[in-house]
Amino acid sequence: IKAGSRTELVEMLKRWDPIDVMQLLVRLRLKQARKLFNWLPANPSIKVIAELRPEYRSLLMEEATQEQFRDILAGLDPEDAADILNGFPEDIAEALAHRLPDVEEVTSRQSYADDSAGRIMARKFVALPMTCSVDEAVAQIRADASRIRKVYTLYVIDEDGRLTGTVELGKLLLAPGTSTLGAIMNRDFLAVSSDTDQEEVLRLAAKRDIRAVPVIDSHGRLIGRISPKQLNRIATEEAAEDMLLMSGVSSEAKANDAILRIVRGRLPWLLTGLIGSSIAAMVVGSFEDQLATAAILAAFIPVTMSMAGNAGLQASTVAVQGIATGNIWSGEITHRLLKEFLAALMNGAIAGSILALLTLLASTLVPIEAPLHLALATSLSLLSVTTLAAMVGATVPLALNKLGIDPAMATGVFITSSNDILGVLVFFLMATTFYLS
Amino acid sequence: IKAGSRTELVEMLKRWDPIDVMQLLVRLRLKQARKLFNWLPANPSIKVIAELRPEYRSLLMEEATQEQFRDILAGLDPEDAADILNGFPEDIAEALAHRLPDVEEVTSRQSYADDSAGRIMARKFVALPMTCSVDEAVAQIRADASRIRKVYTLYVIDEDGRLTGTVELGKLLLAPGTSTLGAIMNRDFLAVSSDTDQEEVLRLAAKRDIRAVPVIDSHGRLIGRISPKQLNRIATEEAAEDMLLMSGVSSEAKANDAILRIVRGRLPWLLTGLIGSSIAAMVVGSFEDQLATAAILAAFIPVTMSMAGNAGLQASTVAVQGIATGNIWSGEITHRLLKEFLAALMNGAIAGSILALLTLLASTLVPIEAPLHLALATSLSLLSVTTLAAMVGATVPLALNKLGIDPAMATGVFITSSNDILGVLVFFLMATTFYLS
Q1: A88 and A149 fall within a common domain
Q2: What is the ipTM of this complex?
Q3: Is residue B40 a part of any domain in this protein?
């Protein structure tokens, strides 16, 4: 790539599909990608930028000149342009926005709250009066064809601009040309207000199996439309957030965050975990005398803790996932918990037996006092810890959900810590009872 | 609910939205839900069933009579009917399928592999010859209107039934009535074969931003269509699978699995974890003499392990997520790892300082020998463990991905175990060097 002459390369890339150019760019080092990108003439580069993930757009364009910038932004969808501007400091964003043809479109989005329907909606939609006939509607769409690429639903408004109904394109095709939109429109439609949270928009759209959602203001006037592309984006974001929260990372964490953002996103949970494990340390410390008598007991701390952690994480992930997908039959929770309990008991019994065997095996290699008693104590404690941790993991998310707390977030923090503490406590109690007594 | 008379209740539910009835049902105990469901006349119950998640359908219908069954299945979309039949033992499913009007539709799906495009495709689509004019196409769609509810794309086929192009409904509306479909169709379309994996279908559809994907056989003939609803379902499933795999649960785990399925889905990872932590136990055991001298050291095992676990989980989740969403700029991996390293160093330094303070504080309450040395040893070990665990967590998923192994699965199993072992090893080495020497 580096050896080839610039003109040849650009000629070649021009003939490529924008998606392929984009995939080439993200495989290069950032500096080379920027250089290559700056070589591209405006037309293909706009298409490439449109294919790129939003985070990369600003990275790639950091070194572009203001001129290039204006051309590229002007060529993008206003939603995409606004996303890019969002990634810049406010003064630069404003200076750039003023040079754009769709100034109003781009800047007015900034006035809506983050993650609200207003922030993600597009202002491009087809709205027609109720009195419009089917033939007139078709003519209108033909006239607007260049401006609107993909239309599947027409919005019908009254004389004050209030949304009164929707007409699917298929229905328009089937209806006689002289009937009015008011007569054929669907009056039982879904619309959200501009301050509705994007999660709520997604939930409503999914419930009704609707692919584009109209946005109305406080007077019921149609002001925008959330596209299927945006809905997909929200869905992906929401799934990712749950996963990140459960692992104790801030839900906005991205793979290419700056250092301070990484620290900010992870430190709170690390410190909460530190407090939790310090309590576990105090529990261990209170058994110092027993440890001094039988230092071998310390070797079982990692086993107990890792088992408690794993069993708890498994049960809580299934529960969090079940809540998120609505897959939990609320009427059958007791039954569900009973099943979790029995399954954990079985898992714990199997793991406990294996640990007992390993302990007896180890006693033939290194001198261990009363190996049978030790095997009994450790396997019984593994059984109890596994069962206990699974029950905590299965119950806490359901309880938190009932209290209106996001189960994904709380699960990561509290279940791990409480299982750490419970784990060592149960282990030392069992060890004291069955081994040291 | 129980007190009200049956007739009144049924009258009331008939007037409800099927979605609301569905939501009432899942809040009841299973027995009551079944009873109530059996009271409902066929028509509303079909709509309710269509709204229910597939897993619940078979649960709810277990006690329905064969007669009810046939009526309900016949009223559902063939895809939904096939899903329900899939949930039954083969002989019953066959007996039921033969009584359905769409026998062929329902049973032929069973012949495709699990998770293949053939299994999830619908056979309802609008296919017209290339020579068909726009006006004829509109007439054809009108005639089929009752059979097909939502059409957005027409498929254009040649005389052998091979797919040659697609026409968006919007385009049909805009084109002159006399032009042929062959002239206006889009020839650069996406189609998948019936044995394409559903994940691959999703990836292709997402890349092209396409909402319904046509399915062709080995001769290029159009045989089905994957609906937007199915694509959404795949997307949700895929996101859930990653999360479950990372937590060490089989990717097919559901919140309402039977006991043996729960055990089977979780035991392998628990046992792998047991082996990993047994190695950690051996490491601790090899420091038995040091522990006998200073039993207090055992108290720091939980702190070290929990910190290693958390830091590793955080880093690996961000990496797995970044890989899954394509959010990692491949050209910048060294830079990314450097950032992870510096961030982990900062987090480790902060957590280490706090642990040192806690240790010194504890030494004022209980007698601890050489508290300053202990504080130094434990905080340094926390710093190293955090950094090391984060680097393992950030690197392993990337490496596995390069090797073609699903990073989500391997991450859960290997990172936790290796961090457990590394954690205790580093801790005891630090303790021996700075505290016991």
Answers
A1: no
A2: 0.70
A3: yes
